[in-house]
Each structure stands twice: as structure tokens, then as C-alpha cells.
Design a protein that fits this description.
368 residues; alpha+beta; 21 strands
């Protein structure tokens, strides 16, 4: 019923856009025909109007065929909020990429995005992705620095190490650096651990998002990926990642680490020296040990991360959270260390087989 009411509202908005009210139209057409007007009849008629609108006026608003174009038909029109309704409330098709459905850039896809699109289409509201700020990408050696701002203020929010495929984000301008995401898959082959690897990259700014494309090889696998970074908001930064793998490999079969599609790399050597203080999977938190397995046996979930914080070594290390499309077992390993400049924590989702495509979202949050 909620979805029907949303459709009905959109239908009425479409009707008003053409300078008539749904009630007036019903009265002018059906009363002379002696049709009994009931509340259900009005709801059904409104739904009919939205269907007609989608067919007869598919290009009410022509805009950038990306941000806000959630149904990928190369235009922004009433079909896009309808598509979002199906996605959110009826288990409809997904949005590719997810951030282009997050039209108000708050890191979430929800009813607020539907309202934003309706206001843009019918009430001359702000366009999806409209902003006076922009991205600046620079490279120094193997380090790619990613900044966002305007005028003379461009604070750095992310970085990519092209020598190892390590990607980092901060939660905001007051955040320190901390946990990294290893973008390339990790696995053992012939008794040797293969982790990270050189990547090449390109980038473009689309709809105020930074789209960072990268590719690289690991063993006999060819990896291509795309990171879409949304403009930072307040005390959080969000990125959407899509990875595709071609080729074949026979990794060593090892419990909980046959194939790691991604890995969080961090450091904790003492209560006074850490980038990560606690690990979590879904709503369960786990103390980080001094050595050995972090979670044994693994805990399964779509959401996991490492909580940052402040200590003598570092102030305001961000919490890094990963949200997978599909649930996987999550565990990690701690190597004893006294060197705060050397990562000694690996935290990952585990697969028993090689994966050839996967997606996830990265959220860098201020640690409370």
C-alpha cells in the first residue's frame, strides 16, 4: 500500500505539471459518465496517470545521464524516482553504481533521495550532484593524493598507493590517517602469499563524484576495478567499489583464507599505539589480540570494520567500515610487532573459491 501511495503522489505531481488537478480531471471525465467515485478508484486512477506519464512523457527533464539517472536510460525523469521506490520497497533491481542513486550525497539511498529527485524534476530543485566544489588529484611517486574543496581550500580525503593497491580514506578534515583497504585480492599460491600489487589508474569527475578506475595483475589474474568517491559530508566519507577479475588461478586451499577479495590492513602494537582499537562484524565487537586469529571461527556478515580512535601515537584515527553485497565469513590475523609504522593487522572476508566479481561500500567514519 505504501508503494501505491508513493505512485499516487507522483501521478498527482505529474498531473499538476500539466496544469490540472487529479480531482478536477476525475470530476470532469467520470462524473458525467455516472461512475461512482471512491477513494480506491482515485488511487487506481492516480496509478494509471503515472503509468501514462512514463510512456507518453519520458523526457520531462533532460539532464546529465549519470547522477540521478538510476535506471540507466540516459535521462533524468519521473522513471528514476519510481525505480528508486521499487529498489527500496519492492526488492527491485539494484542501482549500478550505487552512488548515482545517492542523489543528495548523504551516504545512504533512502526516501530522501526520492524526494530530492521529485523536487528537482517538478519543483526546480537543485540538480543531482550540483556543487561549487570539485576534486583535485595529484601524484607524488607511487602515492596518489585525492582532495576535495573550492577556492584555495582543498583538504585531502583519500589516497591510493599504486605500488601495492592500498587505498585509504579519512572521515573529515579533523581526522587522522589509519586503516587501509587492499584493493587487489589476496591468496596463497604454491605456499607463497600474494597480496597487493602494482596498479595503473585513471580518473574523471562525474556528477560531482570522483570515478577512479584501476587495473593490475596478480599471478595469472587480471583485475579491473572502479572506485566512486562521493563528496565528503561532515564527519564521514563514502566510496563504492566494483571489482571484476578475469583469468584463472588455483590458490592453495587454506581454511578461512583461500581467497580474500579485499583486506583491511591496520596496526595495533599496544593500548597507546594503534590505528585500530576494536574489530566488529555486524553488531558484534571483538577485542584485537596481540597475535593469532582475530575471530576464530569466523563470524559471518555483510558489514565489518575496524574502529579507530585516539591514543598517544595518533589522534582521531577513523573507523573504516566495509559493507559487502553478499554475506561472507570474516576473520583476520595479528602478527606480533613493536613497530607502530608497520601494519600488523589483516582483517578480511573469506571465500573458499576464487570470486570473479564483487562490490562493496567503504565508509570512513569519525570514531566516537
Amino acid at each position: 500500500m505504501f508503494v501505491i501511495l508513493v505512485y499516487a503522489h507522483l501521478g498527482e505531481v505529474c498531473a499538476k505539471y500539466h496544469y490540472f488537478h487529479v480531482g478536477e480531471l476525475i470530476m470532469s471525465i467520470f462524473v458525467p459518465l455516472k461512475v461512482k467515485i471512491t477513494r480506491n478508484f482515485i488511487l487506481i486512477f492516480r496509478f494509471f496517470l503515472i503509468c501514462v506519464t512514463l510512456v507518453l512523457i519520458p523526457q520531462l527533464v533532460i539532464g546529465q545521464p549519470l547522477c540521478g539517472n538510476v535506471n540507466n536510460d540516459e535521462k533524468i525523469n519521473v522513471g528514476d524516482p519510481v525505480y528508486l521506490v521499487y529498489h527500496l520497497f519492492r526488492g527491485g533491481q539494484g542501482i549500478d553504481p550505487m552512488l548515482w542513486g545517492d542523489v543528495n550525497h548523504d551516504g545512504l539511498i533512502n526516501m530522501a533521495d526520492i524526494v530530492y529527485l521529485v523536487n528537482y524534476i517538478f519543483k526546480s530543485g537543485p540538480a543531482p550532484g550540483e556543487s561549487s566544489s570539485n576534486w583535485i588529484v595529484t601524484q607524488d611517486g607511487s602515492t596518489v593524493r585525492i582532495a576535495y574543496g573550492s577556492d584555495i581550500s582543498y583538504p585531502q580525503y583519500a589516497s591510493l598507493d599504486t605500488a601495492g593497491s592500498y587505498f585509504r580514506m579519512v572521515s573529515g578534515t579533523e581526522s587522522g590517517w589509519g586503516t587501509s583497504i587492499v584493493l587487489m585480492p589476496t591468496f596463497w599460491e604454491g605456499g607463497k602469499l600474494l597480496q597487493g600489487g602494482t596498479v595503473v589508474y585513471s580518473y574523471q569527475e562525474i556528477c560531482n563524484d570522483l570515478v577512479l578506475s584501476f587495473s593490475g595483475d596478480i599471478s595469472t589474474l587480471q583485475v579491473e576495478g572502479e572506485i566512486i568517491i562521493a563528496p565528503p559530508r561532515g564527519d564521514s566519507s563514502v566510496a563504492s567499489v566494483k571489482i571484476t577479475v578475469t583469468g584463472s588461478v588455483e590458490p592453495d586451499i587454506r581454511p578461512w583464507e583461500t581467497f580474500k577479495p579485499l583486506m583491511l590492513s591496520s596496526m595495533r602494537v599496544s593500548p597507546d599505539s594503534f590505528d585500530a582499537s576494536v574489530s566488529y562484524v555486524e553488531d558484534a565487537q571483538f577485542t584485537i589480540p596481540d597475535d593469532s586469529w582475530m575471530i576464530s571461527p569466523p563470524d559471518r556478515g555483510c558489514k565489518f570494520g575496524l574502529i579507530g580512535g585516539s591514543c598517544v601515537w595518533k589522534q582521531n584515527a577513523p573507523t573504516i567500515e566495509i559493507i559487502l553485497e553478499d554475506s561472507l565469513p570474516v576473520t583476520g590475523w595479528v602478527t606480533p610487532s613493536n613497530d607502530p609504522n608497520d601494519d600488523n593487522i589483516g582483517f578480511w572476508p573469506a571465500s573458499d573459491t576464487v570470486l570473479y566479481t564483487w562490490r562493496y561500500r567503504i565508509i570512513a567514519k569519525q570514531t566516537l
